[in-house]
Amino acid sequence: MPFIQSGDINISSDVTITQDVAEPIVVHPGGVLVLMAASEGGVIVRGGGYARIAGTTHGLFVAAGGHAVLTGTCLGSVTNDGGNLFIAGVVTGTLVEHAGTTEVAPGAAILDENGAPAEKTLSTWSKRAACQSPNLQARRGQLATGLSASGSERTGSPLDGPSPTE
Q1: C-alpha span between 160 and 137 (Å, rounded)
Q2: Is 43 exposed, middle or buried, given 0-12, 13-18 or 19+ CB atoms closer than 10 A?
Q3: In a domain, 40, yes or no
Q4: Considering the domain boundaries, does residue 83 fall inside one?
Q5: Which of 2, 87, 126, 140 has the most CB within a 10 Å radius?
Q6: For residue range 118-146, what is the model confidence (pLDDT) as tens digits?
Q7: Left (φ > 0), alpha (ψ -120 to 50) or beta: where does 59 sit?
């Protein structure tokens, strides 16, 4: 797991970031991040943390037990080290799966630094995405479930953003 240091933005509750930040963002257990802007320092999702990245990040690391949905762009490496990761956006860099569940949606792009489809995308990820796993929606539902900081059950998905009534 990447080293967490002082100066990082630490998320331990529900937070939406709508302005660009230079510091790394660390989502701790019970934290829910919705990133609508850019994070120059990347995003680390620890076990029990949830992140929906609709903006741009310069790296994404999902630890064991962490949950992340990338619908935006990652400029750099995306590493799943035992969490649940769903990619429906663009990764320009490397995609590494050490453990956990990684789903790549049709239409998502995994590109090398020159903008060409990455080797791994052509051989492995395209096949996975083309299969349209029947468990995909169930896994996304599991990704979205959790408990709020007060211990009450969440209604809806923390990864889908606020409900129209909020």
Answers
A1: 14
A2: buried
A3: yes
A4: yes
A5: 87
A6: 765 433 443 343 333 334 444 444 444 43
A7: left
Q: What is the pLDDT of residue 85?
A: 95
- Which structural domain, as residue segments, surrounds residue 123? 9-138
Number of domain units in the chain: 1
145 in any annotated domain: no
Q: What gap in Å lies between CA 61 and CA 50, rounded to an integer?
A: 12
| Residues 53-65: tens digit of each pLDDT | 999 999 999 999 9
Name which of 70-74, 82-86, 156-160 the model is least confident about: 156-160
Residue at 55 is within a domain: yes
156, 120 in Cβ contact below 8 A?
A: no
Q: Which one has a higher pLDDT value, 67 or 132?
A: 67
Amino acid letter, 102: T
Residue keyed to tokens 């929906």: 52
pTM: 0.70
